Automatic annotation (TrEMBL):
Residues 179-342 form the NB-ARC domain. Residues 38-78 form a coiled coil. Belongs to the disease resistance NB-LRR family. Residues 550-938 form the Disease resistance R13L4/SHOC-2-like LRR domain. Pfam families: LRR_14, NB-ARC, Rx_N, WHD_DRP. This is Uncharacterized protein. GO terms for biological process: defense response to bacterium; innate immune response-activating signaling pathway; plant-type hypersensitive response. Residues 431-502 form the Disease resistance protein winged helix domain.
Length: 976
């Protein structure tokens, strides 16, 4: 992808060229003596950039080429910093005062501009000298000829590092029996038709070994068989030659590819064959290979790949034949590890067992990692300190002296295959500590701030950045940890072994500097700096490694001091997780003019000088320790006109919020009696807003209550017709309760303060649901679970994009289910009745309703619902609350109808025991168990009991009632 502003391969060269072009435009009226120098810089750097782009795609550079590339990249960083400072000095101050004061200010600005022009002229002369030296070195070393020579020899093949896996002895294989039997069952199913099965997984998980085991076990059943390796840059002719020689015999290598394809098809057309195509990287390669494999009866094809989308496309349309290989479990990992070093676990010296287990866990079940590390340890002294050093090296870049070339070689194949923009994004993950669970949204915001993401067909940068992340997940280089109901990754993690690889590459290219307690000699220019000071000492000596031109700084832990933030004039990204309020407040964050991303996950106060951060795009103040209300937003924050994301910490909206027109995400905002009504009105002006999360806390009978309500209602109507995709209205975390809508759809809130046990009323008297009625509405998430609706308006059916809905209804009726059941994209529904309905009339959910729903949470009405056959065909998880006292009269425990939910896996029942006898509870629970056993795919059944309140509410309890955990029942017949 061309045009990326910043990358690991070319540094900030593209950014520099873009800024030089801007300076030459009409916007900046440069002095005559300055303009030629700017044009010279642009022309020379454009030529250098062309060579940089070529070098970026080459792995085997000689030292001279590497040195030249590094010098150019570092020079581009310096030029970029220089231009940024110059542009800042040239900018006029907004809202200049009038009169004499304004005239005086204008004169001062002119003088500053003249000074800036003199400075830039001197700097241009110095830069021209540096550029001339680098250009002369380029031609003196004849780098262009070197690059051409490397390009012409880049097709030379080396020994395939996967060969040992193909010819491993069966006795040395561990944890392979289960996957082998699974694949054989999938392939040998007796069907009289062609079948293609894919094995997908990260490099090093043992795909080739597994495929070869299946090949040996199953191959004898076919008329002919072949095993071919495709590789990253496949040679189709050689692949066809290999296929034909294995199937038919020796092949004349002078034959053309068309002849080879025809010969293969003709020979295989009436034969039952088994072919393994190992390590397919692209679907296009498979399209070529399958030309030689005719579709005939009972033939089988097994392929391996690192990419999920390739696996699915190769198996299309039968996507159920994709087998994702899993890491080894703990017993198999230990078996493999100890067998290779000691022969068995029992022979491991007792003083090495604990450290061995820790090393095994760090390998994460990756066979390649286990084999490599165990091979290394096998030749090391059986000394605990030596082994501890190896353990500590995993995850933060293994010692270069360690013999890990084989492992890195295989993992490097995946890295080398990435386009440059994805290499950059992957390398940036080394800005997080090992085993850190990375928030996806925060990561993409940091990529955006660094300039790693390019606009693609007008797409939002966050959406484009997420597509980068999913490509890395698809290539098995990033592991998703928490996945939302819509299938989107919410958090992710980098495997320790992959982290080793990217840390080593990032450090080698001076892209990122990673520092822990092992303080090393400072680099000349530190551009991105990870400082992990958790449980570390001598922190201040680590700060000494920082240089003024650092661009990205991540601090994790609790330092005893803070680095001099204002000295870092080039800083774009600052992420602080840990520290104390005083340290953070005193570090003058407002004095870093280039800052784009600021996240402070610790309570602190922002200075009024925050307005100086003119380029700030993300301000994330969510405290991971949940210290509410300790951070006050300064009034000057509304002057941050470039801000796209403001994530507050239960703070009030400032007046003037409507001026922040670039805002796309606004969360953690408190609306209480001290909030400004005008700020609620101004919300409606934020037409780019995609996500809005409000915490409503207006007390009952407030003098200006209706003004707050009307202001919010008006703003919601405006936002709903713009870009709003996620709307959440909640209450302050230390308050429990519910928001309600009366029969006229007017919103009110009844809350309980869990500290004082006193009741309050918060009425939102005139908020209607009109904001949901826009035909062009793109709302995807609506969370107003405390909001009590007296009936569901039919216009809610227009929310065609809604995937998550959480609401409270005064009384759930058949009409309620009819309207909600027609929402075409709904994946998760939390539906609660305001009061439990004791009627004997059962509501029905039919087969043509809730076609996509995966999670259903029903409270206070579960016993009154009948699930008809074929209802909710994709439902996997259900939460039901049933009153034991009324259950017998309602249905006699005879037919709960949950057996008709064919896809159901997880069942969670809350039995309301209030007013019920022990016998009623036991009978109801037994009936639920009996129905559950009729489900074909259930995994787990959980029971909770809601008991009568006695003296005080238990911690984590329901409103006014204590929750008692009863039991969890797993299904031993189904593997979770």
């Amino acid at each position: 992808m061309e045009g990326i502003m910043v990358s690991a391969a070319t540094g900030v060269m593209n950014s520099v060229l873009a800024k030089l072009t801007t300076l030459l435009g009409e916007e900046y009226k440069l002095q005559k003596r300055v303009k030629p120098g700017i044009k010279y810089l642009k022309d020379e750097l454009s030529s250098m950039n062309a060579l940089l782009e070529k070098l970026a795609n080459m792995d085997n550079l000689d030292q001279q080429a590497k040195d030249w590339r590094n010098q150019v990249r570092e020079m581009a960083y310096d030029i970029d910093d220089c231009i940024d400072q110059y542009i800042l000095q040239l900018q006029d101050e907004p809202n200049k005062p009038a009169g004499f004061k304004g005239f005086f200010r204008k004169m001062v600005v002119k003088v500053k501009k003249l000074g800036a022009c003199r400075d830039i002229y001197q700097q241009i002369q110095e830069l021209k000298t540096r550029i001339d030296e680098v250009s002369q070195r380029r031609y003196r070393y004849k780098l262009d000829a070197v690059v051409d020579a490397i390009s012409s020899t880049s097709r030379v093949e080396t020994i395939d590092p996967r060969l040992p896996a193909r010819y491993a002895e069966p006795s040395s294989l561990v944890g392979i029996d289960g996957p082998t039997e699974e694949l054989i069952k999938l392939l040998d199913d007796g069907k009289q038709s062609m079948k293609i099965v894919s094995i997908v997984g990260l490099g090093g998980l043992g795909k080739t070994t597994l495929a070869n085991r299946v090949y040996e076990r199953l191959g004898q059943q076919f008329d002919c068989k072949a095993f071919v390796s495709v590789s990253q840059k496949p040679d189709a002719k050689k692949i066809f030659q290999s296929l034909l020689s294995q199937i038919k015999g020796p092949v004349d290598e002078t034959r053309e590819m068309d002849w080879l394809i025809h010969e293969l098809r003709d020979f295989l057309k009436d034969k039952r064959y088994f072919v393994v195509t190992d390590d397919i990287w692209r679907h296009e390669a498979w399209n070529v290979i399958k030309c030689a494999l005719p579709e005939n009866t009972c033939s089988r094809i097994l392929l391996t790949t690192r990419k999920v989308d390739v696996a699915k496309r190769c198996c299309h349309p039968d996507r159920d034949t994709v087998c994702e290989i899993r890491p080894l479990n703990e017993p198999d990992s230990e078996d493999l590890f100890f067998r290779r070093i000691f022969g068995s676990k029992d022979q491991c010296p007792i003083h090495l067992k604990d450290v061995s287990v820790e090393i095994i866990k760090k390998c994460g079940g990756l066979p390649l990692a286990l084999i490599t590390i165990s091979s290394l340890l096998a030749v090391k002294p059986k000394n605990k300190d030596e082994w501890l050093n190896i353990r500590n090296s995993i995850g933060m870049g293994l010692d270069k002296k360690c013999d890990i070339d084989e492992m890195k070689r295989i993992l490097s194949l995946s890295y080398s295959d990435l386009p440059n923009h994805l290499k950059t994004c992957l390398l940036y993950l080394s800005m997080y500590p090992e085993d850190y669970e990375i928030n996806v949204q925060q990561l993409v915001r940091r990529w955006r701030a660094e300039g790693f993401i390019k606009v693609n067909c007008g797409r939002n940068l966050m959406d484009e950045g997420e597509s980068y992340l999913y490509e890395l997940i698809n290539r098995s280089l990033i592991q998703p940890v928490v996945i939302g109901i819509d299938g989107r990754a919410m958090t992710c993690r980098v495997h320790d072994i992959v982290l080793d690889l990217i840390v080593s590459k990032a450090v080698e290219d001076n892209f990122i500097t990673v520092v822990d307690s092992n303080v090393s000699e400072s680099q000349e220019n530190v551009r991105r700096f990870l400082l992990d000071v958790r449980d570390k000492e001598n922190v201040m000596s680590m700060f000494s490694l920082l240089t003024p031109n650092v661009r990205s700084l991540g601090i994790f832990g609790y330092p005893t001091g803070m680095p001099p933030i204002p000295d870092f004039h080039a800083l774009r990204v600052l992420n602080i997780e840990g520290g104390n309020k005083k340290l953070i407040t005193s570090c003058n964050i407002g004095k870093v003019p280039q800052l784009r991303y600021l996240r402070i996950a610790v309570p602190a106060h922002l200075p009024e000088q925050i307005e100086e951060l003119k380029f700030l795009e993300t301000l994330d103040l969510c405290d991971i320790f949940n210290h509410l209300g300790l951070m006050n937003l300064p009034a000057s924050i509304v002057k941050l006109h470039q801000l796209k994301c403001l994530s507050a910490n239960c703070e009030r909206l400032p007046d003037g919020i409507g001026n922040m027109k670039a805002l796309e995400e606004l969360s953690g905002i408190l609306v209480d009696e001290e909030s400004s009504v005008n700020s609620l009105h101004e919300l409606g002006r934020l037409t780019k807003l995609r996500r809005l999360c409000l915490i409503w806390s207006i007390p009952d009978k407030h003098d200006h209550e209706s003004m707050y309500v009307d202001a919010l209602a008006l703003s919601l109507r405006k936002l709903s017709s713009s870009n709003l995709m996620d709307l959440r209205i909640g209450v302050k975390p230390h308050i429990t309760g519910r928001i309600s809508l009366d029969s006229q759809q007017n919103l009110y809130l009844r809350i309980t303060d869990t500290k004082t046990r006193s009741w309050k009323q918060c009425n939102l008297a005139h908020i209607s649901l009109d904001f949901l009625s826009s035909p062009s509405h793109i709302l995807q998430q609506l969370h107003i679970a405390p909001c009590c609706l007296h009936g569901i308006p039919e216009r809610m059916a227009s929310l065609a994009s809604l995937t998550n809905l959480s609401i409270l209804v005064h009384q759930v009726t058949q009409e309620t289910l009819q309207i909600l059941g027609d929402l075409p994209a709904l994946l998760a529904l939390e539906l609660q009745s305001d009061e439990a309905d004791d009627t004997t009339e059962r509501l029905s959910i039919y087969s043509n309703k809730f076609g996509c729903l995966k999670i259903l949470d029903l409270k206070n009405l579960a016993i009154g619902v009948m699930f008809h056959e074929g209802a909710m065909p994709k439902l996997e998880t259900i939460f039901l609350r049933i009153k034991a006292h009324s259950a017998q009269s309602a249905c006699g425990y005879q037919d709960l109808t949950i057996r008709n939910l064919s896809a159901l896996k997880y069942l969670n029942f809350t039995i309301d025991c209030r007013g019920a006898t022990d016998e009623e509870v036991e009978v109801l629970q037994a009936a639920i168990k009996d129905e559950t056993t009729l489900l074909p795919n259930w995994y787990a059944l959980r029971f909770s009991r809601l008991q009568e309140e006695e003296d005080m509410v238990s911690e984590g309890s329901e409103e006014g009632h204590a929750m008692e955990q009863e039991e969890d029942i797993p299904n031993s017949n189904n593997e979770h």
